[in-house]
Amino acid sequence: MSIFSGIWIPLITPFADGEVDHTALRALVRRYAEAGVAGLVALGTTGEPAALDAAEQDAVLATILDEAHEAHDAHDGRALPVVAGLSGNHTASMRERIEQLNALPVAGVLMAAPYYIRPSQAGIVAHFTALADASEKPVVLYDIPYRTGVRLELDTLLTLAAHPRIQAIKDCAGSLDTTLALIRDGRLQVLAGEDMNLFNTLCLGGSGAIAASAHLRTERFVALYRALAAGRLDEGRRIFHALAPLIEALFAEPNPAPVKALLAAQGAIRDELRAPMTRASSALLERLIALDTGKDAAVQATEPVI
């Protein structure tokens, strides 16, 4: 069975006085391992990799991998799987980075389409095929057209699914038709990438989610996945209805500012981002704190009984 199932967290990169806070980063890895997540994504969009230089990216990944290995006791005696994010629009440079990642104990590589240049679908197939050929690790495609400027069309995805190392997709395209077609095809593990689509993706037969909002109330996200995987639809629906207002609020301003603000309010990190990202507004932080301090019961009480 593919490892690309369950709840994965695209880990933030905490900062302190402008520098990467590796102590806080280690604590976050341990926190999420103990909460039962299936794995972590390092240097995904939520981790602000565009604001990190190459040495910082290497150091962040090294810290996460090291602590994920140390956290094995909280993860059924196994190292917590870590997927490394990779982005860019120069195929040769990305191949060089993949060759570096081949030497590391990463569980896979998450890669988006080349951004900004908007290549043809044939160009996208050639790009991903070259990178997957170079990779010794499983590849997770990242379909997020509102960031890259180009979407991965269904025919393109089905073509790429034939590659033995392309095993999963982080699905952020917002197309129910594509999501369902990929699930029915069965060759790619479909991970919800838009957090509000987590429930319906799992109900359709998706394998899990890479969910930034799962930084908070992580145990409830894990419980949601487990309930739906076991066929307990009513329980899963109640959990999702309770989480939905928080999920919505966590994306009311650019990610990861709201996630960082609420984690900082809990004392887990400092509320710092690097330019051009800015901190969440005080009004949103107040809303997030209110949602995070015991509104589950109120939401469940108003949920209709079906």
From TrEMBL:
Compartments, record wording: Cytoplasm
UniProt keyword Cytoplasm, yes or no: yes
Recorded GO CC terms: cytoplasm
Main location: cytoplasm
Keywords tagged on the record: Amino-acid biosynthesis, Cytoplasm, Diaminopimelate biosynthesis, Lyase, Lysine biosynthesis, Schiff base
Enzyme Commission no: 4.3.3.7
Residues the record marks as site: Part of a proton relay during catalysis: 45, 116
Biological or metabolic pathway of the protein: Amino-acid biosynthesis; L-lysine biosynthesis via DAP pathway; (S)-tetrahydrodipicolinate from L-aspartate: step 3/4
UniProt GO MF annotations: 4-hydroxy-tetrahydrodipicolinate synthase activity
SMART domains the record matches: DHDPS (SM01130)
Active site: 142, 170
Quaternary structure and partners: Homotetramer; dimer of dimers.
UniProt function note: Catalyzes the condensation of (S)-aspartate-beta-semialdehyde [(S)-ASA] and pyruvate to 4-hydroxy-tetrahydrodipicolinate (HTPA).
Family: Belongs to the DapA family.
Name of the protein in its database record: 4-hydroxy-tetrahydrodipicolinate synthase
Organism: Paraburkholderia ginsengiterrae
The encoding gene: dapA
